[in-house]
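Hello everyone,

My group is preparing for a crystallization screen and wants a predicted model to guide construct design. The compound we'll soak is adenosine-5'-triphosphate. Before spending weeks at the bench, it would help to have a computed complex in hand. I've included the protein sequence and the ligand's SMILES below. Output in structure-token form would be ideal because that's what our pipeline reads.
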Amino acid sequence: MPIIEVNEVRKAYGGRLAVDGVSFHVDEGEIFGILGPNGAGKTTTVECVEGLRVPDAGTVRVAGLDPVTDREQVTRLLGAQLQESGLQPKLTVREALELYSSFYPEPADRWALAERLGLDAHLDRRFGKLSGGQKQRLFIALALIGNPKVVVLDELTTGLDPRARRDTWRLIEEVRENGVTVLLVTHFMEEAQRLCDRVAVIDKGRVVALDTPAGLIDRSTGSTVISFTPSQPLPDTGELSRLPGAVSVSADGPDGRITVHGDDDTADAVISLLAAHGITARQLRVLETSLDDAFLDLTEQDT
Ligand SMILES: Nc1ncnc2c1ncn2[C@@H]1O[C@H](COP(=O)(O)OP(=O)(O)OP(=O)(O)O)[C@@H](O)[C@H]1O
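Reply:
Good plan to model first. Here are the tokens for the complex, ready for your pipeline.
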């Protein structure tokens, strides 16, 4: 059942469209990713979901409620991640947890939350003195303190080192295991691939693709890359381009290394073709394209 419904939302800033007819829904219990290049309209979209911005057109519903007109009820259902500037640097972790839990009628057990997020050893440390990873854990704690059904996380792991990023991913998975729906804005393909059930790719204010991470990879052109150095030149390289699923063939380097973009069937067909000519494929590599490649395929590059 959808807990978030975004339907044909438009938002312009001073006549310039930032969000141009975005629609998607998020099912209860999902981790739903919003992925896109800088300035694509991701933050504006989630701010409309949070009720922080009023769409110029279209509708947003969170558990059937309008985030603008039913703001108070939506605030109770939806936990939003604070931005760094949202907390006083002198506030201690303990004070921040106490302050934010006072905003809600039925807050979560803040000390249990602190323990779960590994903040219990830092309760008396000031926000300004926390490491990047500790700050992010505190933001997650504060987003969860009102016992929300949905949590919105925007660029949560930007600026974290790889270990802190992985720790944060585990926390997000735990949040979902506890029944909370997660709407995640991210720049990181690896993050989307690892965490998200489905991803909406937004480019220039529009949803250009919406699928599972695996589905996005599958639909990118030439999702399998086969490269090899033939033991002897092929009689006709044109044969490779005519193989099933082949999208492109290129030969480069002094040793005549050949790269074929295609699909799984292409990989099998390349091997059979070479065998038929008695040619061996030296240093054969068969690689799946990544979500990175799919993303570049889906989003237009400004030149
Ligand atoms: N308050 C604002 N006033 C004017 N223009 C804005 C405002 N906020 C965003 N924009 C513009 O709207 C467009 C979409 O911005 P938005 O922040 O939603 O994109 P984004 O995908 O989240 O980008 P990023 O990944 O860089 O954070 C951009 O061109 C941005 O410059």
